[in-house]
């Protein structure tokens, strides 16, 4: 009894990779984000703003704060609204990834994993806690976390990639101009009738030649 195994074509491998790469990036980011927030809560919590861990002098430190707004502490006290909007934006990003973005490109795949992983990481905070755990303090900048950074990096890298990808596309000539050029070339290369090439032919000779042609 013989068995047959289906071979994996390059197209099917690319199709599976366009979902595998974002899924791996999303999973790793979610694990790192939630683990870091759990460590911050155990180390610097439960009351926010009581302690901090300096890392680079006064410029970079770890400080636990509760964020009821969006990324970087904007629009506070609207956590339920931003939970819904984050889910809608994530669904829109998936739709754009499927239908509009070059989703077989590794850069686009990684960026999509960063954006979705960061958005879902903060959504999990809002659902479980009612707020987002922020702890990265850089100078005067509002406190943020790994999820915020992932979304920002993913969006910026994707925008730069699409910008340069569009500029690198070759400019093809308009189809009307190309068609006109082909017609002119064919007309120039077409051989002229033999009786028209003889300027000395009389009218009677032309009539006889025309009768032979017909």
Q: Brief overview, please?
A:
This protein is mostly helical.
Description:
The protein has six helices and three strands. Helix 1 packs parallel to helix 3, helix 2 runs antiparallel to helix 3 and helix 3 (106-129) packs antiparallel against helix 4 (146-168). It has a three-stranded antiparallel beta sheet. The chain is elongated and about 95 Å long. Mean pLDDT is 81; it is low at 1-7. With 214 residues, it is mainly alpha-helical. Strand 1 and strand 2 form a beta hairpin. 60% of the residues lie in helices and 9% in strands. The protein has one domain. It has helices at residues 10-44, 79-99, 106-129, 146-168, 175-189, 203-213, and strands spanning 52-56, 60-67, 132-138.
Tell me the layout of helices and strands:
Elements: H1 10-44, E1 52-56, E2 60-67, H2 79-99, H3 106-129, E3 132-138, H4 146-168, H5 175-189, H6 203-213
Antiparallel strand pairs: 1-2, 2-3
List keywords for this structure.
214 residues, 9% strand, disordered N terminus, 3 strands, single chain, mainly alpha, 3-stranded antiparallel beta sheet
Q: Give the topology string: H per helix, E per strand.
A: HEEHHEHHH
Helix content: 55-70%
Q: What is the average of the pLDDT values? A: 81
Question: Class by helix and strand content?
Answer: mainly alpha
- Spatial gap, N to C terminus: 72 Å
Tally of structural domains: 1
Shape designation: elongated
Radius of gyration: 33 Å
Number of strands: 3
Strand count, sense and closure of the main sheet?
A: 3 strands, antiparallel
Uncertain segments of ≥5 residues (pLDDT<50)?
Answer: 1-7
Instruction: Output the strand order for the largest sheet.
Output: 1-2-3
Number of helices: 6
Range of strand content: 5-15%
């Amino acid at each position: 009894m013989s068995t047959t195994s289906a071979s994996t074509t390059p197209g099917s491998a690319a199709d599976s990779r366009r979902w595998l790469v974002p899924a791996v990036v999303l999973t790793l980011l979610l694990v790192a984000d939630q683990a870091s927030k759990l460590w911050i809560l155990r180390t610097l919590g439960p009351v926010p703003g009581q302690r901090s861990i300096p890392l680079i002098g006064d410029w970079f430190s770890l400080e636990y704060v509760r964020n009821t707004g969006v990324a970087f502490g904007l629009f506070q006290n609207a956590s339920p609204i931003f939970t819904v909007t984050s889910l809608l934006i994530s669904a829109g990003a998936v739709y754009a990834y499927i239908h509009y973005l070059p989703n077989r490109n590794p850069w686009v795949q990684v960026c999509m994993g960063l954006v979705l992983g960061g958005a879902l990481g903060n959504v999990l905070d809002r659902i479980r806690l009612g707020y987002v755990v922020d702890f990265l303090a850089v100078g005067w900048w509002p406190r943020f976390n790994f999820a915020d950074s992932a979304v920002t990096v993913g969006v910026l890298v994707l925008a730069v990639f699409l910008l340069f990808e569009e500029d690198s596309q070759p400019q093809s000539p308009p189809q009307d101009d190309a068609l006109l050029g082909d017609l002119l070339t064919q007309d120039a290369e077409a051989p002229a009738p033999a009786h028209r090439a003889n300027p000395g032919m009389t009218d009677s000779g032309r009539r006889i030649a025309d009768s032979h042609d017909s």
